[in-house]
């Protein structure tokens, strides 16, 4: 079947970018796909790799594809698929420029990747994933056909999806008897309704906080007169109030971050005004 498709001249997708807000599970989706199809991805963190590339950018990118090149040379069409994942791909493959510091490094990285994806010696046994919060920052040359031509938006969950995420993260405590019996599906629905614009990671953090409150309360209840914890008699139970308290703490943290972003943006605008 694969051979028949090959002789039609059809070219398989070599690059896929998952983009969307932070915390929406872009890398997790890729990992799950790889696990389902029994592939072991090579995951590269963009900012970390960039910091180690000064003066040897092209060599570092070439090394990422070295195994794939050897397999294609030795095994041809029977070569196994090599999956490479670039997290925060915009840090590595941002728009090429001659005016920014470190531009030579980024330009070299982009050029080398283009060579691997659709140059004269392009590899046919690779699938490259990228994740980003800023699709607009990526070099447009990488988004053309034969490169990262498939771009999939992973958006924030809607209310029904948030309900499913809450159920997922609280399923284990409920199954093991750590969730108060009076917490109902309606309570979960309430949480899903008030957590608008929360990502999956935000909801996971909310649940983690609620569990930590329950654990802290249990430790307080089991402290002996010698201030030692009697863990054998700990009675951990996540109450509705724990989830509500965690929600309000998350809201405070979100408002603080929003205010900081507004302040930074205003300061940046003031600086540009002063220079002008």
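^ structure tokens above, recovered residues below v
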């Amino acid at each position: 079947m694969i051979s028949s498709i090959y002789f039609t001249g059809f070219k398989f997708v070599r690059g896929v970018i998952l983009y969307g807000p932070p915390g929406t599970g872009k890398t997790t989706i890729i990992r799950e796909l790889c696990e389902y199809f029994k592939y072991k991805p090579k995951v590269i963190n963009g900012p970390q790799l960039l910091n180690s590339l000064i003066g040897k950018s092209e060599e570092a990118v070439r090394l990422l594809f070295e195994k794939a090149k050897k397999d294609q040379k030795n095994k041809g069409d029977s070569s196994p698929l090599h999956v490479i994942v670039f997290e925060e791909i915009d840090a590595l493959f941002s728009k090429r420029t001659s005016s920014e510091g470190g531009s030579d490094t980024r330009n070299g990285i982009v050029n080398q990747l283009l060579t691997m994806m659709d140059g004269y010696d392009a590899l046919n046994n690779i699938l490259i994933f990228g994740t980003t919060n800023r699709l607009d920052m990526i070099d447009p040359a990488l988004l053309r056909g034969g490169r990262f031509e498939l771009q999939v938006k992973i958006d924030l969950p809607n209310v029904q999806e948030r309900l499913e995420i809450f159920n997922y993260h609280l399923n284990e405590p409920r199954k093991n008897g750590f969730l108060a019996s009076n917490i109902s599906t309606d309570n979960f629905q309430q949480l899903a309704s008030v957590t608008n614009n929360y990502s999956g990671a935000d909801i996971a953090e909310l649940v983690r906080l609620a569990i930590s409150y329950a654990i802290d309360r249990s430790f307080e209840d089991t402290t002996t007169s010698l201030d030692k914890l009697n863990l054998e008699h700990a009675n951990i139970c996540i109450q509705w109030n724990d989830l509500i308290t965690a929600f309000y703490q998350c809201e405070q943290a979100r408002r603080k971050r929003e205010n900081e972003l507004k302040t930074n943006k205003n300061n940046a605008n003031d600086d540009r005004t002063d220079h002008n």
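Residues 159-275 form a domain with the Helicase, Ruva Protein; domain 3 fold (CATH 1.10.8.60).
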